[in-house]
From TrEMBL:
<dbReference type="InterPro" id="IPR010982">
    <property type="entry name" value="Lambda_DNA-bd_dom_sf"/>
</dbReference>
<dbReference type="Pfam" id="PF01381">
    <property type="entry name" value="HTH_3"/>
</dbReference>
<dbReference type="InterPro" id="IPR001387">
    <property type="entry name" value="Cro/C1-type_HTH"/>
</dbReference>
<keyword id="KW-0238">DNA-binding</keyword>
<protein>
    <submittedName>
        <fullName>Helix-turn-helix transcriptional regulator</fullName>
    </submittedName>
</protein>
<feature type="domain" description="HTH cro/C1-type">
    <location>
        <begin position="15"/>
        <end position="69"/>
    </location>
</feature>
Length: 75
């Protein structure tokens, strides 16, 4: 699970897990949600927190609730 830390709050994501379980390349997922492959790469590594719009687009693409893929925890 990737994560990004900001001011006492860590944003987590399971983009990599969902992408692999669905047999998708980073490029295929990027095209499906309208971003670059680089965006997917840095998101999976926890170096980028997506906009709320992009987070919803990814969740909708995988047909899951946004909280199944994205979450947070306090440090």
């Amino acid at each position: 699970m990737a994560s990004k830390q900001n001011s006492g709050l860590t944003i987590t994501n399971k983009v990599y897990e969902y992408r692999v379980l669905n047999h998708l390349s980073q490029t295929a997922l990027a095209k499906a949600v309208g971003v670059s492959k680089q965006t997917i790469l840095v998101m999976e590594k926890g170096n980028y927190s997506p906009t709320l719009k992009l987070a919803f687009e990814i969740a909708i693409f995988f047909n899951v609730d946004i909280t199944d893929i994205f979450g947070y925890k306090e440090n």
